[in-house]
Amino acid sequence: AKEAGKNNCQFYTKGMNATAVNYLLLENDLRRALELNQFTLHYQPQIDLKTGELMGVEALVRWQHPERGLVSPAHFIPLAEETGLIVPIGEWVLREACRQQKIWLDAGKKVGKIAVNLSPRQFRQKNFPGKVEAILRETQLAPEYLELEITESCAMEHAGETINQLNQLNQMGMYLAIDDFGTGYSSLAYLQRFPIQKLKIDRSFVNDIHDDMNDAAITKTIIGLAHSMQLRVVAEGVETEHQAEWLRQRGCDQAQGFLYAKPMSPKQFESHFHGGRFC
Ligand code: C2E
Ligand code: CA
Ligand code: CA
Ligand code: CA
């Protein structure tokens, strides 16, 4: 802990203000959170815009902190990424999501694919495909029930390596999606070489489709781009029926957002799930 503290001080030489101290406290807590079993996953549905059917669920991590309460991933994922703690945390997330999916499948609950977010450091590990394989074997989950999401910026940063890694995962039979699409700088030449099945339009565009002509134009372009590459396209952050209708009319395949549901605990999720639909 002392060593970690030292690194952190070096990192924050610009002045140990309240935020930096807070960050240090958080890092120490974060190190212990896995042992203390303080992480949980919440699940958010992805809905087919034409049929209303449930197509999948995205697993989103939360930290149940004894004093701070439920901590949002936006507050600890960047720190976890920086310290490398994201590797064991991400592994826990993947295992837990696969375990939950297997339970739902065995109970006859077809929630579609379970989507798991990968952080760059986790995805870039040389033996990452092997780790996924081991987790699938351990949880006895068939790969077709799993989907992995990497962000556009992560995918494009070392695009050559990305292709290698995605090819291995694709050959194992799982689905692959590019997250937060539209926020990074995509090379279309690379995008075409990625063996992926899905693009997720970032919610900053979806949010403003009715107020901002640029965002509407970008959203339309992404839908067209996805379809020209035979990819499914999902709009994130859909909050109103008006937005859903706009997306449906322009051929967007799926939607995810507060209009349908906030991310929920497995119990909450099950209480809204009836006969293949989410209500
Ligand atoms: P993301 O992957 O883009 O996940 C979607 C985020 O948008 C979630 O925030 C979700 O709660 C939020 N969201 C969904 N629908 C709406 C909506 O209609 N309106 C608004 N305003 N927001 C909506 P959350 O759960 O706080 O996660 C934030 C980010 O943290 C995620 O963004 C992802 O980048 C990261 N994250 C979450 N779980 C994991 C994880 O297990 N591993 C990794 N590496 N990152 C994760
Ligand atoms: Ca995501
Ligand atoms: Ca996203
Ligand atoms: Ca905007």
Automatic annotation (TrEMBL):
It comes from Cellvibrio zantedeschiae. Residues 23-277 form the EAL domain. The lineage of its organism: Bacteria, Pseudomonadati, Pseudomonadota, Gammaproteobacteria, Cellvibrionales. This is Bifunctional diguanylate cyclase/phosphodiesterase. Coiled coil: none annotated.
